Amino acid sequence: MKINWAERLMVNSPVRIVVQRLLIRWFKKNTFLKPGAKILEVGCGRGAGAAMLLKGFAPALLHAMDLDLRMIRQAQDYLPPQQNDIFLYVGDVLHLPYPDATMDAVFGFGVLHHLPDWPGGLGEIARVLKPGGQYFLEEFYPPFYQNFIARRIFLHPEKDRFHSADLHQALKAAGFTWRGILECPLVGVLGVAIKEEA
Ligand SMILES: C[S@@+](CC[C@H](N)C(=O)[O-])C[C@H]1O[C@@H](n2cnc3c(N)ncnc32)[C@H](O)[C@@H]1O
To answer: Which of 114, 122, 190 to mutate to test the pocket of ligand 1 (most atoms within 8 A of CB)?
Structure first.
């Protein structure tokens, strides 16, 4: 589901850049991703995260996609020309245009909780990751985004939302194990999950 004007303001703010920097710093502390990796960022928004991934992980390939053409246009404007090694496209996490086991890492900053079919999105991320590949995620739980105030400001799918236990179970079912996790059950989770070797 595309984000509304209020969330666009939030994710396009300088505060979000600071937060994403801290998230990526935490990811780097909690795992190791070799330079030269194939990386996909899903739901990339205006591209600030993709720019940080390019700088921080020196990938051989970096694709960044979003459902919302407006966000991809913003990313095209946001990323300086020397960052044209980031391939940006409009797409849906539920239908990623890659063969199985293509990517070494998938990053998703605040994306899964925007999908009406979030288990489907998780399955698709698992499908495109190589065995041993890493899923870097920042996600939020309903008490955070569906409380009395937030639901009047932001727009999120309402049915079949995941709480902590649901996400843990679905990750396990999709073949992931946690490598690092920082979680607050009333807010959300920051984590790195590894796709098990076949
Ligand atoms: C909360 S915003 C986060 C944006 C960016 N990752 C950030 O952290 O600033 C969620 C993003 O996910 C995108 N999104 C929602 N559903 C999607 C889908 N099915 N496929 C790809 N992107 C999706 C939205 O358009 C939006 O840009």
So the answer is: 114
Q: What are the pocket residues of ligand 1 if the criterion is a CB atom closer than 6 Å to any ligand atom?
A: 1-3, 7, 11, 16, 42-45, 49, 66-68, 71, 92-94, 109-111, 114-115
Structural tokens at position 175: 């073949």
pTM over cut 0.90? yes
pLDDT-based confidence at 80, cuts 50/70/90? confident
Pairing of strands 38-42, 61-66: parallel
Distance (Å, rounded) from C-alpha 144 to C-alpha 146? 6
Number of domains in the chain: 1
- Domain for residue 176, yes or no? yes
For helices 164-173 and 118-128, what crossing angle results, to 10°?
A: 40
Query: In whole angstroms, what is the distance from residue 108 CA to residue 101 CA?
Result: 17
Cα 188 to ligand 1 centroid, rounded to whole Å: 16
The CA distance from 61 to 9, in Å, is: 29
Q: What residue's CA is closest to ligand 1, atom 1?
A: 110
Q: Is 72 within the bounds of a domain?
A: yes
